[in-house]
Specification:
This protein has about 180 residues and is of the alpha+beta class. The chain has four helices and eight strands. The strands form two sheets. A five-stranded antiparallel beta sheet has the order 4-3-2-1-5. Strands 6-8-7 form a three-stranded antiparallel beta sheet, covered by helices on one side. The radius of gyration is 24 Å and the shape is elongated.
């Protein structure tokens, strides 16, 4: 009975030792365990690990669960991270002009790395738009979201300034004129 009661505690301790020895996560790492658990590791103990979420909530995860989980570490092995911005332009747009305008805009944004070089690719001919992805790297996870927001605004402004149309879904409704029931 005692061994059964200690099973969970021992599993957490062995999980903690495993995490510490493997160095798979450490204090300061930005991690994602699942859709509900993302944040910065603030403590790795023998029995549990504490994570501060983006909303400043403290989550304590038993190390046994952590050792058996798939962990996405945004910091290791390299703190640089890729940013992807999806956008669409109207049919009839000059694809090379779209690439040139968007690349020129991205390359002016502070924090965007020159290597790997930013790129803009057309990925689909959608229902209402030619769909593109702007792909670029930033030096650190901490600036990813602000840089992405700024880049999206700058891309939008640059497309408008260059007179490249940004479509939106439209519907055509035909009314039948006649006697009906």
């Amino acid at each position: 009975a005692i061994a059964f009661a200690l099973q969970s505690t021992l599993g957490n301790i062995f999980g903690g030792v495993s995490i510490i020895l493997d160095k798979s996560i450490k204090v300061g790492d930005k991690i994602k365990l699942d859709a509900d658990t993302m944040g910065t590791v603030i403590d790795v103990g023998l029995r549990s690990t504490k994570i501060r979420t983006w909303d400043n909530e403290l989550v304590t995860v038993p190390n046994g669960k952590l050792a058996d989980s798939k962990i996405l570490n945004f910091i290791q092995p390299d703190p640089s991270i890729r940013v992807v911005i999806e956008f669409g332009v109207e049919y009839g747009s000059d694809i090379s002009k779209v690439r040139k305008v968007v690349l020129g805009t991205i390359n002016k944004i502070k924090g965007v790395l020159k290597e790997p070089a930013p790129k803009v690719v057309m990925v689909e001919m959608g229902d209402f738009a030619l769909k593109f992805k702007a792909l670029f790297w930033v030096e650190d996870f901490d600036i990813k979201f602000d840089t992405k927001a700024l880049a999206a605004e700058e891309i939008y402004s640059a497309l408008i300034k260059s007179k490249i149309g940004i479509p939106f879904p439209t519907r055509t409704i035909y009314l039948k004129n006649g006697k009906g029931k």
